[in-house]
Design brief:
Order of helices and strands: EEEEHHEHHEEEHHHHEEHEE
CATH architecture of the largest domain: 2-Layer Sandwich
Structural class: alpha+beta
Number of strands: 12
Number of helices: 9
CATH class of the largest domain: Alpha Beta
Strand content: 15-25%
Helix content: 25-40%
Distance between the termini: 26 Å
C-alpha cells in the first residue's frame, strides 16, 4: 500500500454552556437529554497537530505537549474507533497526534471540548469530504467532535451554539451542534468571561461518571423539561437584550447543574467553599453597583464571571480586590466571547 502521509494543525476554543447539558439519551453515543447553548471562549483553546499515514487503522501515537500521555490514549483510541464507523478515511489511516491546552486540564474549563473539537477539525480537514469552511464541513466536524465529548460539538462555531433538538432553533439536532443565527442584541454581544481558578486539579468525579448518574435520578425528567424551556427563554433574551433575565437564568442554570450532582445517588459535589464565597461576593457587588455581571459554573469548582466589556475596569478591580483571595495561587484566566477554530498548518 502507498503510505501517503498528510499533516494538519488546528486550534479550537473552549466553550461555556449558558443552558447546561447534563444527562444523556439512550440509543446512541453522546446524545443529549436536553438541548444546551454555549458561548465559545476565544482565548482559552487547544492546539492539535495530526499526521495521518495511509495504512490499516486506526492506530495511534499520542503526545500531550510533546510528551507521552498514556492516560489519555484510551479516550483518543475510543474516539477514533467511533469515528471509523462513519469515515473510511479513519479506517484506512494511522495517526500521530500532539495536543496542548493553554489552560489547566480537567478543572471544569471544558478542556476536553477544546481538545476533541480541534481533533475533529483535523480529521474533517484531512478527510476532505466537504469544502473547508463550508456549513457542511463544520457540521461534519461537530458530528465527529460529539463522539469524543458532547460539549466539544459546540466548540467548532464562533457564534453561540445550540446542541440538541429544540423546536425554537432551526436545524437543531442531537447529532451535532448548530450556530445560533439570530442577531444578538448589542447589550449581550460584547461580553467577556474570566475563569476564577478555585481548584486546578483533576476532578474527583468525571463528567462521564456524572452524566451516568442522571439515568436513575429522581429529578431528571423535571430538569430536562426545564432546560428545554430555558433554551426558549435565553434565545429570546439574547435577541431582545434582556440582561436582567439573562443573568437570572444563567445563574439558575449553573446552580441547577450542581444541584443535580448533589441530589444524585450516589451524591457528590464539585463545589468548594471558595466557590460559594465567590458567588456571594458577586451577588453583593452586583447589588451594590447594579453592573451587568453574572456567574456560571461548569462541571467543576471554578467560577466563570461573565460581564459586559464596557465595564472591564470596574470588574478587573473587583476581581483583584475581592475575588483573588479565593483563587488558588491567585490564578484567573480571561477570555473574549467568540472565536472559531483556526487552521494553523
Amino acid at each position: 500500500m502507498n503510505n501517503k502521509q498528510m499533516q494538519v494543525k488546528y486550534s479550537c476554543p473552549s466553550n461555556i454552556a449558558l443552558v447546561k447539558y447534563w444527562g444523556k439519551k439512550e440509543g446512541g453515543v453522546q446524545l443529549p437529554a436536553n438541548a444546551s447553548i454555549s458561548w465559545s471562549l476565544s482565548d482559552l483553546f487547544a492546539e492539535t497537530s495530526m499526521i495521518a499515514t495511509q495504512d490499516e487503522g486506526p492506530k495511534l501515537i499520542f503526545t500531550f505537549k510533546g510528551e507521552p500521555k498514556p492516560s489519555f490514549e484510551p479516550k483518543i483510541i475510543a474516539f477514533l474507533e467511533r469515528i471509523s464507523q462513519y469515515s473510511d478515511f479513519v479506517k484506512s489511516h494511522n495517526f500521530i497526534i500532539d495536543t496542548v491546552n493553554n489552560f489547566p486540564h480537567g478543572t471544569g474549563i471544558a478542556s476536553s471540548a477544546a481538545g476533541f473539537g480541534a481533533l475533529a477539525m483535523c480529521i474533517a480537514d484531512l478527510e476532505g469530504k466537504y469544502e473547508n469552511g463550508s456549513a457542511e464541513f463544520f457540521e461534519r466536524a461537530s458530528f465527529f467532535a460529539r463522539l469524543g465529548s458532547g460539549s466539544a460539538c459546540r466548540s467548532v462555531y464562533g457564534k453561540p451554539s445550540v446542541w440538541g433538538e429544540h423546536d425554537d432553533v432551526e436545524k437543531s439536532s442531537d447529532l451535532f451542534a448548530v450556530p445560533f443565527e439570530k442577531e444578538i442584541h448589542a447589550t449581550l454581544s460584547n461580553w467577556k468571561d474570566c475563569v476564577l481558578i478555585v481548584d486546578d486539579g483533576e476532578k474527583k468525579v468525571s463528567s462521564t461518571e456524572g452524566h451516568a448518574l442522571l439515568d436513575n435520578h429522581p429529578y431528571a425528567a423535571a430538569r430536562f423539561a426545564n432546560a428545554q424551556k430555558n433554551i426558549s427563554k435565553i434565545t429570546s433574551y439574547l435577541q431582545s437584550g434582556d440582561v436582567t433575565n439573562f443573568i437570572a437564568l444563567v445563574e439558575s442554570e449553573a446552580l441547577q447543574l450542581h444541584s443535580m450532582m448533589m441530589s444524585s445517588i450516589p451524591y457528590f459535589t464539585l463545589i468548594r467553599p471558595n466557590t460559594l464565597a465567590i458567588l456571594e461576593e458577586i451577588w453583593a457587588f452586583r447589588e451594590e453597583t447594579n453592573l451587568p455581571l453574572a456567574f456560571t459554573l461548569d462541571a467543576g469548582a471554578n467560577v466563570h464571571l461573565l460581564y459586559d466589556k464596557q465595564y472591564e475596569t470596574e470588574i478587573s478591580n473587583f476581581i483583584d480586590n475581592k475575588l483573588l483571595v479565593y483563587c488558588k495561587n491567585g490564578l484567573y484566566l480571561c477570555s473574549n466571547i467568540g472565536g472559531t477554530p483556526q487552521k494553523l498548518a
